[in-house]
Amino acid sequence: MPTEKKIVSTTEEDKIIPTIEEDKNIIEQILAGDINKFAILQKKYYYMLLTLIRKIIKDADDVEDVMQESFIKAYKNLASYNFEFTFSSWLYKIASNCCIDFLRKKRDLSYDSFENKDNEEGFQIQDSYFLPDENIINNERTKIIESAVNKLPKKYIKLFKLRYEDEIQIEELADKLNMPIGTIKTHLFRARKIVELTLRKYPVFFDIMIPLKTNK
């Protein structure tokens, strides 16, 4: 089980590519009683969570605290993990919630600290460090979506932006671009699929749980 001690940074050699079957085997061994195997999952996903948490939490010490809390919660709730989904998606969601909880507590604490000791009416100072967690998450979502759209094939980018950013109707697009409606619908369908595949790489920001591949 993870200890309360802060996680020690690993080296480049410790970056391990996650594999679904390996995760499943490790989790099954942990649930069967071999709790020391959880250290393998910690080592394996350290950098993945570090990248996520650093985008939301700025202070290095706080990042480590949130990292540790994320792994502790994952361990305590491992029995509720659904093997139908990837472990990374499940772990990312836990880490995201830990970040949001941390920011909310920080924000509330910052406001409480300005209250008058004698319960007299005082004032509050807006500290930019304690931004609402929703803004932080939404800003990151926007960046990811913009990046995904800009990586589309050139013939899709303009069409995608006109339809979903400028909210131009398909019939109007057909006139504007001198294209058949059927072609526009096909291009938009393909573009959406490409963007969706990109967003699925960031389940914590889009609340997407990715099912495991089956042989069906």
Biggest beta-sheet profile: none
Basic shape: elongated
Structural class: mainly alpha
Order of helices and strands: HHHHHHHHH
Number of domains: 2
N- and C-termini, Cα separation? 36 Å
CATH class of the largest domain: Mainly Alpha
Q: Low-confidence segments, ≥5 residues, pLDDT <50? A: 3-18, 110-133, 208-216
Residue share in helices? 55-70%
Per CATH, the superfamily of the largest domain is RNA polymerase sigma factor, region 2, helix turn helix motif
- CATH topology name of the largest domain: Rna Polymerase Sigma Factor, Chain: A
Query: What number is the mean pLDDT?
Result: 75
How much of the sequence lies in strands comes to under 5%
CA radius of gyration:
22 Å
The beta-strand count equals 0
Discrete helix count:
9
Based on the coordinates given, report the CATH architecture of the largest domain: Orthogonal Bundle
